[in-house]
Design brief:
186 residues, Rossmann fold, four-stranded mixed beta sheet, three-stranded parallel beta sheet, 9 strands, binds guanosine-5'-monophosphate
């Protein structure tokens, strides 16, 4: 699981990990958030709140959470055989997954500084109210990540961050035994 506050570059890191590793399968989340200008249609399953809540009530999510006023959820994963599932989710979701998958690798990505996080959030064109909410959440997210024993990685230089996370994934693969395809790394 790749977790971390908004604006730390999780999406870019996840895309780079999947591009470099043909056996990593990136889960596509559902969200009730509206699509950002220029955001690919495939970035999420964009759903209404009614559709989302029905999916949740039907047990269709491994975890789901409300973040800055929108709902986000991970559908039950269905990777091809031999693939490991990568989740890019917030830390509340990571805590839920940890309950059912205690062995899951949990990586918490941080921005080099709060100023850098703010400028990255601003750079993607989110409304000011949303930026303020995400910044306010960062501290509590970091605390929850420590409670989860997540491995903290500072995303200073993208290539180095991706390489560091790829080696954590390799280590987790070497350590695990009895994989059911969703054990780790996710
Ligand atoms: P954004 O709206 O910027 O795309 O995402 C906001 C936050 O939602 C990010 O921290 C992202 O990691 C998180 N997120 C995306 N998908 C999921 C999901 O399925 N479950 C949870 N819990 N968080 C998610």
């Amino acid at each position: 699981m790749l977790s971390g506050p908004g604006g730390v570059g999780k999406g870019t890191i996840a895309a780079a990990l999947v591009a470099a590793d043909p056996t990593l399968w990136l889960s596509r989340s559902w969200t009730t958030r509206v699509r950002r200008p220029g955001e690919p249609e495939a970035a999420y399953v964009f759903a209404t709140e009614l559709e989302f809540r029905k999916q949740a009530a039907d047990g269709g999510f491994v975890e789901w959470a409300e973040i800055a006023g929108n709902l986000y959820g991970t559908p039950q994963p269905d990777p091809p055989a031999g693939f490991d599932v990568l989740l890019e989710i917030d830390v509340q979701g990571a805590a839920q997954v940890r309950e059912s998958r205690p062995e899951a690798l949990c990586i918490f990505v941080e921005a080099p500084s709060p100023e850098e996080q703010e400028s990255r959030l601003r750079g993607r064109g989110d409304p000011e109210s949303h930026i303020a909410k995400r910044l306010a959440l960062a501290d509590s997210e970091r605390i929850l990540a420590y409670e989860l024993n997540a491995i903290h990685v500072v995303n200073d230089a993208l290539e180095e961050t991706v390489a560091a996370i790829a080696s954590l994934i390799d280590e987790a693969r070497q350590e695990r035994s009895g994989n059911d395809g969703f054990v780790s790394p996710i």
